[in-house]
Design goal:
heterodimer, A: 113 residues, mainly beta, six-stranded mixed beta sheet, 12 strands, globular, B: 113 residues, seven-stranded mixed beta sheet, four-stranded antiparallel beta sheet
């Protein structure tokens, strides 16, 4: 069975600093999509960033970037210049061959002012 | 642009009652997904539709759960009869196509007493 593992249940970072959230996944496919979603206390699920496996270039969205290591099946999220509004649960997800999202358990990110 | 719209935002009802959750996907999106989120099980895909047709309902927990999508702009998830273990946050999401990022509604927090 395909799985997504987020090994950090909780992370904390000082405001304005950089933090990296880890994610590993298991798949036998060569082409697939990976996503990071953010869920703040308001409980909305917000798409943060998407990576297509066939693209070697790491995706970037403003302060958010990924480190995609296909051979290692690793897909970490880096948040630069952390802001108080970044506090949320962060979920990593892998889209399988049936186009279903396989979700990690989430990492709770705490921003210290 | 309007996002995915779910109603109600909160629902509290007694066990045995019928519950209907509603979802309006983003206009032009062809795929619609229903998820359930609990602390114990995380995010679970219940069912998804493509072009209004149910594609995979293997995540629907029991016959008490049913979902319909009568047209491209509306879907319902019904639980009859409801049980306390159905208490969860139910999310609806839509995507432009089956392999595109999913955009979530604000969710319905369901409490069955």
């Amino acid at each position: 069975a395909q799985t997504v593992t987020q090994s950090q249940p909780e992370m904390s970072v000082q405001e304005a600093e950089t933090v990296t959230l880890s994610c590993t996944y298991d798949t036998s496919e060569s082409d697939y999509y990976l996503f990071w979603y953010k869920q703040p206390p308001s409980r909305q699920m917000i798409l943060v960033i998407r990576q297509e496996a066939y693209k070697q270039q790491n995706a970037t969205e403003n302060r958010f970037s990924v480190n995609f290591q296909k051979a290692a099946k690793s897909f970490s999220l880096k948040i630069s210049d952390s802001q108080l509004g970044d506090a949320a649960m962060y979920f990593c997800a892998h889209m399988d061959s049936n186009y279903q999202l396989i979700w990690g358990a989430g990492t709770k990110l705490i921003i210290k002012p | 642009d309007a996002g995915v719209i779910q109603s109600p935002r909160h629902e509290v009802t007694e066990m045995g009652q019928e519950v209907t959750l509603r979802c309006k996907p983003i206009s032009g999106h062809n795929s619609l997904f229903w998820y359930r989120q609990t602390m114990m099980r995380g995010l679970e895909l219940l069912i998804y539709f493509n072009n209004n047709v149910p594609i995979d309902d293997s995540g629907m927990p029991e016959d008490r759960f049913s979902a319909k999508m009568p047209n491209a702009s509306f879907s319902t998830l019904k639980i009859q009869p409801s049980e306390p273990r159905d208490s969860a946050v139910y999310f609806c999401a839509s995507s432009l196509a089956i392999n595109q990022p999913q955009h979530f509604g604000d969710g319905t927090r369901l409490s069955i007493l």
